[in-house]
């Protein structure tokens, strides 16, 4: 799917169009309001937003009292970037009037940020802000491992929204009530539980496994092992070239194992067979020594396991890029990722703002759908403005992402209803 | 009758004459009990019959001011010891235990389960007094909570299993055990995920199902099996749960205390003492800038080689090489530079020059990075004047990850890479192996001190390293540069007494000074009083 060539200079013209006719305000509000009655009063009103406006002007502590105010303000300001923060004890836009110390961040979704630059030392195809289809597999692996763990497997969460960041990574928003209420200490504990890669520039070996291997690590290894042959041995070719081969050997025990492998590698050039030699050596090690007995697993994890930034997850008041925000450098919309299709997700197929603005004028393939919408519209003149807006995004490539977002919200709504029922039972209202 | 002449500590003389007794209901304002008030003696008897407590009830009695002070100062010494031992040794290993035992005995705090009522009373009261001193800022609270939790952990572990159970029940920690059937289903997973379980037969151990939020320490280190939001904990790991509970309660209590603080501060007798207590924690924190402007930007490169500790030398090198540093590195290095005397203007110039050489254009620098530098100097945001990081902070918080150069090289670098680096800085092979030994034993500050000794060619350092800026100041002293600097630091640091562990940091000394200071005042007042 071609995305119209995006030029950052066009952003000032495209943004007003985006916020007037395409941004899914209804769903957005529905999300952040969490059903209204299922949460404490003023949940939406006390939520902090921050905007980055033209010329890099950054404004924090924005808050809105309703969906329409949110719409009006965003259409007025046309932010280049939108971040979502925490729900505070008072309205953020009035925080200066509150006695210092009383203005507190109370709740926020548990979030995770996986950024491709954190993998620079283990990917050879790109570096820094670039990504390609070869290294995107790292994101797929990350989503699989983390999603599994955060859900009923380990932590018992149910409502996770995975979002493409717009350039080089993914974010995860855990929206369960229990998640929103977590303390900073709990968030950092969860992030550390999920972290296996330790060490900065100065550390060569970043993964060390001890016996016995925790069930969570075992499960993660099963996922990694599925992707490793194609991703690491083929796409990244970690055993195919001298310098990358040396990097791998640096992670191997310093003794005869390394020497033997170096000798074998003089003869054996094929990456898959080389890996099998490494595995064989590891098996030998397991029976002899306690230390280093899992070194081949450690290698796989160092190359593939998700690297998350603990600082993003730790803070209750940390601001993170909002879903459906635009990425100013690439023009891509931060769209939710449908987990059913995570293998096929292609970051380069994500619509840019220029594409969807263009699509507004020339409707997409489904003319029939547009026609039936027309008929419905005639039936109900009152909601025509609303309906037109709904129809608008539906004719663009944004449609399927909003649809997935709708599903996500519908599932959450069930849990709010459940809570309301329980509450009304307690209060004996019928 | 004339009153003694006024002293620097206000009104103390009046206290002696008028009231020797301090009522402690100020501590009681923190928590209201809706129960019927029982006779105080009953409560005390019950509370002090327990070897360990959660400090849920504040003391309700009258005590003398001298007891108030001496209790507080003793506990502060104890907590400082806890802190120092925690950095120099693996917590709860033999050395740690021995030294802590010693300190507790010396300071007259409760030890084993025998008749300890007096000491437990001291423990109880001193804890609450320190709450008053340490509830005021985030940093103080964090420090206080950390040491109290470590102390509690040490004491809890000393209880035998019967006492532990009793403690749990008396404090209403009812967590549910899982059925034998469930245990069987999860058999393999439970055995491999809990170290404690591996030695003992599963059938004989009770396993508790606890919401993961209540077992964060175990979750953080992945020492427990998790399923659907619950942690499955063997009985003898219950320690971590209890600690968490203790920590949470204390944190909440401190927040409440902070709110009642104005009432406490209005009592003129208490305010100076409480201030002394919380300042002696900070000790020499290099927050007040001396020698501003005495360092010129041209000197930095050579100073980095000669007088910077390894962590800062590394950061400086990375900055020069890459013309960029990430946030963690900017904070650690930027605050250090502030501490050695760089002015705000110099700092802005320094960073700007370097970043422009990189990929950042002048405009972007002024917008994004300049703000955070001014923030460091207290010119933006909440205008807090941030203090340069101490060794403890660098070692224990915010570990570096991919692309970072901050942290403590002795703690965070691969031993191999550390060795290479030291060799490239011309440290002798024997020196390198000495340093690596210390690193292996986790004595990071001692390793850095050894590095100091080797690079400055001195036999034995006269100071106990606890702060990167201290390293710099001492280095300048040795190299003979800056006579002004020398004079000032002399008055602030006393020579190291031959104390048991070299690992104890200089942070200990201010506490000793405090009590000496107070003792001095008391002594002088006695004589004055007699004169009158």
Distance between the termini of chain A: 52 Å
End-to-end Cα distance of chain B, whole Å, is 7 Å
Q: What integer value in Å does the Rg of chain B equal?
A: 26 Å
Largest sheet of chain A: 5 strands, antiparallel
Task: Decide which structural class fits the backbone of chain A.
Answer: alpha+beta
Mean pLDDT of chain A: 84
CATH topology tier name of the largest domain in chain A: DNA primase, PRIM domain
Overall morphology of chain A: globular
**Oligomeric assembly:** heterodimer
Give me the strand/helix succession of chain A: HHEEHEEEHEEHHHHHHHHEHHHH
Give the proportion of residues in helices of chain B: 55-70%
What report would you give on this structure?
The complex is a heterodimer of chains A (430) and B (532). By secondary structure, chain A is α+β, with helices and mostly antiparallel strands. Chain A has two domains: 8-114 and 158-192 and 312-363 and 378-427, Alpha-Beta Complex (DNA primase, PRIM domain); 198-304, no CATH class. Chain A is built from 16 helices and eight strands. Chain A has helices at 11-22, 25-33, 67-77, 133-153, 177-180, 184-193, 215-235, 242-249, 256-267, 271-288, 295-304, 310-314, 353-361, 367-379, 384-394, 399-426; strands at 47-53, 57-62, 81-88, 105-107, 110-115, 160-164, 169-174, 320-321. In chain A, the strands form two sheets. In chain A, strands 1, 2, 3, 4 and 8 form a five-stranded antiparallel sheet that branches. In chain A, strands 5-7-6 form a three-stranded antiparallel sheet. In chain A, helix 1 (11-22) crosses helix 13 (353-361) and helix 9 (256-267) packs antiparallel against helix 10 (271-288). Chain A is globular. Chain A starts with 10 loop residues before the first helix and ends with a helix. The relative contact order of chain A is 0.15. The model of chain A has no long low-confidence stretch (mean pLDDT 84). Chain B has 532 residues and is mainly α. Chain B folds into three domains: 44-168, Transcription Elongation Factor S-II, Chain A (Up-down Bundle); 172-242, no CATH class; 298-480, no CATH class. Chain B contains 27 helices and six strands. In chain B, the strands form two sheets. Chain B has a four-stranded antiparallel sheet. In chain B, a hairpin with a 2-residue loop joins strand 5 and strand 6. In chain B, helix 18 (344-357) runs antiparallel to helix 19, helix 22 (415-424) packs antiparallel against helix 23 (429-440) and helix 25 packs across helix 26 (483-492). In chain B, 33% of the residues are buried. Mean pLDDT of chain B is 74; it is low at 1-21, 25-39 and 482-532. The chains are: A alpha+beta (430), B mainly alpha (532). The A-B interface holds A 56, 101, 117-121, 152-157, 178, 182-183, 185-186, 188-190, 192-193, 197-205, 212-217, 307, 309, 311 and B 189, 191-193, 198, 212-213, 216-217, 219-222, 225-230, 258, 318, 364, 367-368, 398-405, 407, 409, 412-414, 416-418.
């Amino acid at each position: 799917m071609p995305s119209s060539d995006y030029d950052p200079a066009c952003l000032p013209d495209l943004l007003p169009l985006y916020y007037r006719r395409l941004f899914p305000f209804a769903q957005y509000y529905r999300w952040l309001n969490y059903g209204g009655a299922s949460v404490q009063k003023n949940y939406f009103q006390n939520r902090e937003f921050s905007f980055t406006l033209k010329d890099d002007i950054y404004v924090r502590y924005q808050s809105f009292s309703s969906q329409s105010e949110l719409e009006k303000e965003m259409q007025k300001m046309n932010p280049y970037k939108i971040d979502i923060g925490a729900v505070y004890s008072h309205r953020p836009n009035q925080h200066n009037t509150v006695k210092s110390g009383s203005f507190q961040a109370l709740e926020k979704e548990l979030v995770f940020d996986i950024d491709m630059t954190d993998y620079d030392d283990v990917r050879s195809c790109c570096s820094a802000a670039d990504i390609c289809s070869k290294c995107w597999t790292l994101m797929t692996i990350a989503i699989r491992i983390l999603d599994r763990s955060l859900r009923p497997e380990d932590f018992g969460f149910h409502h996770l929204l995975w979002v493409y960041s717009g350039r080089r990574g993914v974010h995860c928003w855990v929206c369960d009530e229990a998640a929103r209420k977590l303390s900073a200490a709990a968030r950092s504990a969860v992030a550390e539980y999920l972290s296996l890669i330790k060490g900065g520039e100065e550390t060569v070996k970043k993964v060390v496994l001890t016996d016995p291997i925790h069930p969570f690590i075992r499960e993660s290894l099963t996922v990694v092992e599925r992707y490793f042959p194609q991703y690491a041995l083929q796409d990244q070719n970690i055993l195919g070239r001298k310098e990358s081969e040396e990097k791998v050997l640096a992670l191997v025990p310093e003794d005869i194992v390394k020497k033997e492998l170096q000798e074998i590698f003089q003869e054996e050039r094929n990456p898959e067979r080389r890996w099998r030699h490494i595995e064989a050596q590891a098996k030998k090690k397991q029976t002899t020594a306690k230390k280093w007995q899992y070194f081949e697993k450690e290698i796989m994890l160092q190359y593939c396991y998700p690297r998350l930034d603990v600082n993003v997850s730790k803070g209750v008041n940390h601001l993170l890029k909002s879903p459906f925000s635009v990425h100013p450098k690439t023009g891509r919309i931060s769209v939710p990722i449908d987990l059913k299709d995570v293998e096929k997700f292609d970051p380069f197929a994500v619509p840019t703002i220029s594409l969807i603005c263009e699509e507004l004028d020339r409707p997409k393939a489904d003319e029939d759908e547009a026609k039936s919408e027309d008929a419905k519209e005639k039936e109900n003149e009152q909601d025509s403005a609303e309906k037109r807006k709904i129809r608008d995004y539906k004719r663009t490539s944004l449609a399927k992402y909003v649809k997935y977002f709708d599903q996500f919200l519908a599932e959450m709504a069930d849990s709010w209803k459940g809570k309301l029922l329980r509450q009304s039972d307690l209060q004996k209202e019928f | 009758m004339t009153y003694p002449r006024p002293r620097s500590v206000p009104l103390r003389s009046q206290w002696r004459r008028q009231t020797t007794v301090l009522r402690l209901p100020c501590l009681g304002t923190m928590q209201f009990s809706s129960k019927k008030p029982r006779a105080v003696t009953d409560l005390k008897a019950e509370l002090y019959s327990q070897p360990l407590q959660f400090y849920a009830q504040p003391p309700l009695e009258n005590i003398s001011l001298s007891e108030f002070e001496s209790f507080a100062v003793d506990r502060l010494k104890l907590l400082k010891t806890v802190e120092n031992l925690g950095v120099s040794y693996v917590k709860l290993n033999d050395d740690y235990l021995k030294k802590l035992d010693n300190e507790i005995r010396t300071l007259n705090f409760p030890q084993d389960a025998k008749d300890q009522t007096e000491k437990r009373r001291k423990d109880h009261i001193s804890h609450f007094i320190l709450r008053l001193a340490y509830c005021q800022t985030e940093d103080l609270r964090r420090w206080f909570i950390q040491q109290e939790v470590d102390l509690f952990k040490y004491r809890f572990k000393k209880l035998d299993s019967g006492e532990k159970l009793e403690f749990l029940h008396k404090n209403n920690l009812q967590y549910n055990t899982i059925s034998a059937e469930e245990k069987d289903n999860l058999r393999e997973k439970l055995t491999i995920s809990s170290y404690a379980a591996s030695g003992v037969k599963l059938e004989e151990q009770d396993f508790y199902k606890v919401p993961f939020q209540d077992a964060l320490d175990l979750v953080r280190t992945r020492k427990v099996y998790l399923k659907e939001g619950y942690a499955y904990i063997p009985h003898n790991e219950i320690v971590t749960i209890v600690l968490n509970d203790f920590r949470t309660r204390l944190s909440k209590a401190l927040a409440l205390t902070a709110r009642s603080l104005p009432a406490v501060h209005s009592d003129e007798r208490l305010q100076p003492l409480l201030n002394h207590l919380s300042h002696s924690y900070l000790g020499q924190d290099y927050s007040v800038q001396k020698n501003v402007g005495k360092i010129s930007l041209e000197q930095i490169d050579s100073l980095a080689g000669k007088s910077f500790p390894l962590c800062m030398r590394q950061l400086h090198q990375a900055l020069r090489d890459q013309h960029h540093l990430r946030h963690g590195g900017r904070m650690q290095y930027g605050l250090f530079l502030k501490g050695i005397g760089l002015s705000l203007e110099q700092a802005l110039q320094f960073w700007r020059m370097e970043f422009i050489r990189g990929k950042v254009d002048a405009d972007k620098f002024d917008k994004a990075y300049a703000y955070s530098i001014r923030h460091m100097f207290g010119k933006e945001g909440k205008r807090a004047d941030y203090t340069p990081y101490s060794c403890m902070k660098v070692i224990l918080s915010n570990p570096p990850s991919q692309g970072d150069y901050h942290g403590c090289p002795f703690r965070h670098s691969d031993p191999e890479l550390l060795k290479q680096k030291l060799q490239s800085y011309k440290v002798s092979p024997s020196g390198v192996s000495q340093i690596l030994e210390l690193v292996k034993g986790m004595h990071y500050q001692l390793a850095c001190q050894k590095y100091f000794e080797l690079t400055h060619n001195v036999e034995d350092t006269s100071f106990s390293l606890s702060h990167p800026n201290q390293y710099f100041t001492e280095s300048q002293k040795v190299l003979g540069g800056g006579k002004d600097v020398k004079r000032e630091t002399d008055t602030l640091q006393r020579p190291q007494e031959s104390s048991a562990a070299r690992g104890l940091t200089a942070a200990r000394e201010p506490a000793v000074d405090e009590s000496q200071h107070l003792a001095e005042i008391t002594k002088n007042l006695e004589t004055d009083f007699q004169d009158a």
